Amino acid sequence: MTGKRSVFFISDRTGITAEMLGRSLLTQFDLGLEQHTLPFTHSIARARDAVQRINEANRVNKARSMVFSSIIDDEIRAVVHSADALVFDLFETFVGPLEAELKLHSSHTIGRSHGMIDSKSYDVRIDAMNYALCHDDGGNTHQYDQADIILIGVSRCGKTPTCIYLALQYGVYAANYPLTEEDLLGGRLREPLLPHRRKLYGLTIQPERLARIRSERRRNTVYASLRQCQYEVARAKGLMEKAKMPMSDTTVMSIEEIASTIVHERKLRRRL
């Protein structure tokens, strides 16, 4: 295929659901796509604007666009379907068959999956997020008794984003501890970690990948050099193995995959 093709994620709320499913499906195809998210398309006027943008993208790209829509309102959905595009209507695809099977009508409530209808779940998510932020990079080590998991690893191996994802997606209380030069030279766990051995989980990474990540922030420094990364990764892995700590190699794993692996392997309690 020559030229570009556009994909639109359209929703009457945040667009998170349409994006997640649409992007998951599109990863199966090696395509260069222009991605557009059109949240809060909750009126006929906004739907018409969306259709205009879709048709304009078709004209510019000389290729038919694709649309992933999670709009609930029937009239607004009909407008979106009038676009010259391949439309994947998530409501029509999933909710209709569910209604038939359950012999019940859905509530047609906009934004129910990502709203604040369940205030208890919302509070859990915020509390877990606050915990992750307050216990990032070894902060507040005296509160590790509250943690469900404590991630260990060298700088820039994925500890912080994984903790945040664990908090937002699962309601898991995740802390992380960075292995410093002192830790690596000593080759043993520091005092604050010793009472919490069962909560420790190591993240390792290939040195070449780590060097590329570090170079994005601090190019041409010892910190980002391949030699330094090789040294740190080797020492960190040795420390984790000595402590008999479970670990995952994050080199080719997404944050979602890392988090899911940790939850599954450590049988963590999912509060969400």
At a glance:
The chain is of the alpha/beta class and 272 residues long. The protein has ten helices and eight strands. The two termini are 42 Å apart.
Report on this model:
- The protein has 10 helices and 8 strands.
- With 272 residues, it is of the alpha/beta class.
- It has 2 domains: 110 residues, Rossmann fold; 148 residues, Rossmann fold, CATH 3.40.50.
- A 4-stranded parallel β-sheet has the order 2-1-3-4. A 4-stranded parallel β-sheet has the order 6-5-7-8, sandwiched between helices.
- Helix 6 links the parallel strand 5 and strand 6.
- The mean pLDDT is 92.
Notable characteristics:
single chain, 272 residues, alpha/beta, Rossmann fold, 2 domains, four-stranded parallel beta sheet, 10 helices, 8 strands, 15% strand, elongated
State the end-to-end distance: 42 Å
- Radius of gyration equals 23 Å
Put simply, the count of helices is 10
Oligomerization status of the protein chains: single chain
User: Looking at CATH, which topology of the largest domain would you report?
Assistant: Rossmann fold
Which residues sit in consecutive blocks of at least 5 with pLDDT less than 50? none
Structural classification? alpha/beta
* Main beta-sheet annotation: 4 strands, parallel
Question: What's the CATH architecture of the largest domain?
Answer: 3-Layer(aba) Sandwich
- The level 1 CATH classification of the largest domain is Alpha Beta
Give the strand order, joined by hyphens, for the main sheet. Answer: 2-1-3-4
How much is the average pLDDT? 92
- The string of secondary-structure elements, in order, is EHEHEHEHHEHEHEHHEH
User: What gross morphology would you assign?
Assistant: elongated
Number of domains: 2
> What is the helix fraction of residues, given as a range?
40-55%
